[in-house]
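for the recovery benchmark. tokens below, seq after
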């Protein structure tokens, strides 16, 4: 083969390889630039953060998220520092604006109360307040049981009434109170998110009756009409009331009238017979 032809072929291969390398690098840079343009750096939690915590720089980190940015996501750490957390955050979770209290409102339970609502504390027993039964975010019904004043039917006994329905639990925990001897004891306390009118009803019921919380499905938001239940009615429904026996009235004995009769002897030839006829006064 001619040496000139080999030289031309070799130069062609070298030029083709160089052009391919240049094209590969140009395409790679464009793909990398397109991927970089599709990711956004947002603020996220550096560790698990509990409700009421005031955020600092140590609580925050940054993560790159591809695609659409979640609504309300914070892009700068300065937008989150100094604000209170209104619900628990977990490590690596993007921090959204609606999960934080407004600037200047501080932290704690007060920052998580919605506009126009109130947090009303209710003391519950150990059965209701066990961990996992009533937790923040759950929905409950509030029942009050006791002896109502001026009860027109005292035989009915204790009554139970459904005061409030579909109430959100704001927080659940323990509080230190003193017993009759003045010693500190721990009691279960649940804070409910209610309106001002509901807060008055709940406070009055807690002072004169026993409060019971009933857990409900958070998707069930309908309120059902519930009648007041009395203790006497519960036991009356289960017993069979004996019906009184009908009284037997014994009437006065009526003596039968004595019929007076008259005997007449009849002689017919040699035969004799006797016939009786009633007296005239007996037929009257």
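predicted aa per position
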């Amino acid at each position: 083969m001619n040496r000139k032809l080999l030289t031309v072929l070799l130069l062609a291969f070298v030029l083709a390889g160089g052009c391919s390398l240049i094209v590969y690098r140009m395409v790679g840079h464009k793909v990398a630039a397109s991927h970089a343009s599709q990711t956004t750096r947002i603020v996220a939690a550096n560790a698990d953060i509990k409700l009421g915590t005031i955020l600092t720089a140590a609580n925050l980190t940054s993560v790159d998220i591809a695609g659409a940015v979640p609504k309300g996501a914070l892009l700068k750490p300065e937008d989150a520092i100094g604000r209170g957390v209104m619900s628990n955050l977990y490590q690596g979770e993007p921090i959204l604006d609606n999960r934080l209290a407004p600037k200047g409102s501080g932290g704690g339970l007060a920052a998580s109360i919605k506009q126009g609502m109130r947090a009303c504390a209710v003391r519950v027993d150990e059965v209701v307040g066990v961990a996992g039964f009533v937790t923040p975010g759950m929905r409950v019904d509030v029942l009050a049981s006791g002896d109502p004043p001026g009860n027109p039917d005292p035989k009915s006994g204790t009554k139970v009434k459904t005061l409030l329905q579909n109430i959100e639990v704001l927080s659940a925990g323990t509080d230190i109170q003193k017993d009759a001897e003045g010693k500190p004891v721990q009691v279960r306390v649940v804070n409910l998110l209610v309106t001002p009118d509901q807060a008055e009803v709940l406070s009055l019921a807690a002072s004169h009756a026993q409060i019971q919380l009933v857990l409900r499905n958070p998707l069930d938001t309908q309120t059902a009409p519930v009648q007041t239940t009395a203790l006497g009615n519960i036991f009356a429904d289960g017993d069979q009331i004996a019906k009184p026996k009908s009284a037997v009235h014994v009437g006065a004995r009526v003596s039968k009238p004595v019929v007076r009769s008259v005997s007449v002897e009849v002689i017919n030839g040699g035969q004799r017979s006797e016939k009786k006829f009633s007296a005239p006064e007996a037929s009257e």
